[in-house]
Amino acid sequence: MARIFIIGATGGVGNRLCKRLTQAGHDVTGLHRKPEQADHLSALGVTPIEGDIMTLTAHDLEPMLEAHDVVVFSAGAAGSGMERTARIDGEGPREVAEAMQRAGVSRFYLVSAFPEAGRGREPNPGFENYMLAKKEADAFVARSALDWVILRPGTLTDEEGNDQITAGYALSYGSVSRDHVAQTLAALIDMPQIKREIIELTDGNTRVSDALDALRRDL
Ligand SMILES: NC(=O)c1ccc[n+]([C@@H]2O[C@H](COP(=O)([O-])OP(=O)(O)OC[C@H]3O[C@@H](n4cnc5c(N)ncnc54)[C@H](OP(=O)(O)O)[C@@H]3O)[C@@H](O)[C@H]2O)c1
């Protein structure tokens, strides 16, 4: 069983991932920014640790991440402004990647976004800033020596999952349920052979385990 640190543990994807990982017997720590979120995480069997990605540096994160095997970054500014997006979605993963290298933690799962997201819509500076932040974070992590996986989901929905996805290196754009994102992350964590890969994800027609087995066979 792995010791897993989740950044964004209280979010739509992160919360679903916490449930799956604790139920599978993993030892999970969840970062939260509001004191009142601690009880909810504890009730899921997650060890809560308070911190705000707006201000946490690699130096602050290093001791938090020590003694973990895996880090998941599924935090996001969720449209709360350009400055917050640049910091949380853009610089956040970079601070985390640096902290992991200092702490000797090698396995990093970063939730990013499809580069094609928003195509066909009116250009919007806030969205452009978001996409730039995601891409810069991906580029930084992909250049690192970590055993990273960058997962790029399509538009997220709250549909109940049915274990039917499409996962690949280059997909047509689509939507994907947060449940499927969490299920795919949990399955990837159980497949350490898949590493240093950027994987796109939508709802589809292949079971999660089969879709990831096919990717693993391609390696
Ligand atoms: N929406 C989409 O269609 C879409 C598409 C592709 C990729 N994504 C990405 O997928 C990821 C997961 O999305 P989601 O729907 O699960 O997001 P979400 O529900 O908005 O959750 C975001 C998480 O980040 C945390 N967070 C925000 N600011 C923080 C801070 N300053 N310090 C620490 N934690 C902070 C939130 O904490 P609180 O609970 O305190 O708010 C929450 O746990 C995000 O990275 C998002 O950008 C989204």
CATH class: Alpha Beta
H/E series: EHEHEHEHEHEEEEHEH
Task: Give me the CATH fold name.
Answer: Rossmann fold
Query: How many domains make up the coordinates?
Result: 1
Name the ligand types: NADP nicotinamide-adenine-dinucleotide phosphate
Structural class: alpha/beta
Query: What is the general shape?
Result: globular
- What level of helicity do the residues show? 40-55%
Distance between the termini: 24 Å
- Main sheet record: 8 strands, mixed
Q: What's the tally of helices?
A: 7
Number of strands: 10
Average of pLDDT: 97
CATH superfamily: NAD(P)-binding Rossmann-like Domain
- Across the major sheet, the strand order is 3-2-1-4-5-6-10-8
Short description:
The protein is of the alpha/beta class.
Keywords:
two-stranded parallel sheet, binds NADP nicotinamide-adenine-dinucleotide phosphate, Rossmann fold, 41% helix, 8-stranded mixed sheet, 219 residues, alpha/beta
